[in-house]
């Protein structure tokens, strides 16, 4: 009798867990369906990156926490490859320089960790890309402002709450969500689509 109760209890718990995971999957699949409406933004960002690279510029990327990982992932795809064996594209992740981050954070302010690097490195031919699910981090805002001051083009990957700061950028990819996981998943797909577009542009340029 007791074993039956325990077994039924576990089955009920498993069913609830399965239902919860199915809800997560449904939300993810619905998000993927929303990407079609954002293809123009994805194409515009890829083309802006390509224009910068063709002009001899570099792609600078940064973000905090999980967004720092996204930024590092993106720079890795550009320098390495997405799918095709093509020439490397110049990219630097400003979230990855531990020495610079800790120096600036300690001697100045954590709010300045990206702005100071952008001021030192970026120029008018470059493109500066920020990842921020909230769009509210002061170091993200400061980094974007520093890019503008250096004449670089700016791009923001953000969520629904970052729409306001996106107005201060040349281009933006805005995930229409407030949940961090959904925003980051949408950013990942957008990044890969941008890389696919860039690899097509590289191939076309080499076949001219």
UniProtKB/TrEMBL annotation:
It holds the Pfam family SIS_2. GO terms for molecular function: carbohydrate derivative binding. It comes from the Bacteria. It comes from Martelella lutilitoris. Residues 45-208 form the SIS domain. One of its GO terms (biological process) is carbohydrate derivative metabolic process. This is SIS domain-containing protein. The lineage of its organism: Bacteria, Pseudomonadati, Pseudomonadota, Alphaproteobacteria, Hyphomicrobiales.
């Amino acid at each position: 009798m007791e074993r039956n109760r325990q077994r039924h209890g576990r089955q009920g718990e498993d069913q609830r867990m399965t239902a919860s995971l199915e809800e997560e999957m449904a939300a993810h699949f619905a998000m993927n369906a929303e990407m079609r409406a954002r293809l123009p933004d994805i194409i515009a960002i890829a083309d802006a990156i390509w224009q910068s690279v063709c002009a001899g510029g570099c792609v600078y990327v940064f973000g905090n926490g999980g967004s720092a990982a996204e930024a590092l992932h993106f720079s890795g795809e550009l320098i390495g490859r997405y799918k095709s064996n093509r020439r490397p594209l110049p990219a630097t992740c400003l979230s990855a320089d531990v020495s610079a981050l800790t120096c600036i954070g300690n001697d100045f302010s954590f709010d300045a960790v990206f702005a100071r690097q952008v001021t030192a490195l970026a120029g008018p031919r470059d493109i500066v890309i920020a990842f921020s699910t909230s769009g509210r981090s002061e170091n993200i805002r400061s980094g974007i402002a520093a890019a503008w001051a250096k004449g670089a083009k700016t791009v923001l990957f953000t969520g629904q709450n970052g729409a306001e700061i996106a107005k201060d950028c040349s281009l933006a990819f805005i995930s229409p969500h407030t949940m961090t996981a959904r925003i980051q998943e949408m950013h990942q797909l957008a990044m890969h689509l941008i890389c696919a577009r860039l690899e097509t542009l590289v191939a076309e340029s080499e076949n001219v």
